Amino acid sequence: MEAEEMELFGIWSSPYVLRVIWALNIKKIKYKYIEEDLNNKSNLLLHYNPVYKKVPVLVYKGKPICESMIIVEFIEETWKNDSIFPKDPYEKAKARFLAKFVEDKLSPPMWRFFTTKGKDQEEAYESFTDYLAILERELEGKEFFGGENIGFVDILLGCMSYVVPIYEEITDFEIITKEKFPLLHAWMQAFLSSDIVRDNLPPRDELLYRYRKIREAFLSKDN
Fold it and tell me: Beta strand pairing status for 57-60 and 32-35?
């Protein structure tokens, strides 16, 4: 496939955009990347995603697909090589369940932890570390959630591998350590060093600066 047939609208710092990039890399699909400025959204982005007006948007043969996990499923169903989902129907259902668990249960308290302080932060920390323990158990006997290879759940959780160390540095909390969560810690290292990921990560210094500013903005609202 020629890259001209596929366009991906994104921003450098978005974990949702990276999900799509990683999925495209797994499938070895060529595409044209278009960097957006969300403070000055292009007419093309507004045309292709008039409802949410946000990235990522994948445009395939002129047709837009929006929302990261919907895009990943579209990629999986359109290109049959190098499967992202398990072949077994039960394992596929389980992967979708874990994805929903991450979105509904893990992500909200993790974000609340990062954007609060004091008692609220401590309560959020206890909540999401309990959920991390569930993910730890899911990795027993496996290198990745997808087994020997990166799969759907790994793509969904992938941003955690580089964002958690940034959270730790900014907040001075230990989150995923080799002692507390050895399997998750090993998964993070394996994910970050994989061929499809390591050359497709946002610059750490820029991301660290961005997250510091985000936390400062949230905390200033409480003062």
Answer: unpaired
Distance, C-alpha 14 to centroid of its chain: 8
Asked if residue 56 has a cis previous peptide bond (ω within 30° of 0), the answer is yes
Query: Using an 8 Å Cβ cutoff, are 20 and 68 in contact?
Result: yes
Residues 86, 150: Cα–Cα separation, whole Å: 11
Q: Please give the pLDDT value at position 155.
A: 96
pTM here?
0.93
The C-alpha atoms of residue 113 and residue 8 are separated, in whole angstroms, by 31
| Separation CA 23–CA 147 (nearest Å) | 16
Altogether, the residues listed in the chain come to a count of 223
Q: Are 79 and 25 in contact (CB under 8 A)?
A: no
Q: Which residue has the tokens 């998750």?
A: 184
At 21-54, the pLDDT tens digits run 999 999 999 999 999 999 999 999 999 999 999 9
* Strand 32-35 relative to strand 6-10, pairing: parallel
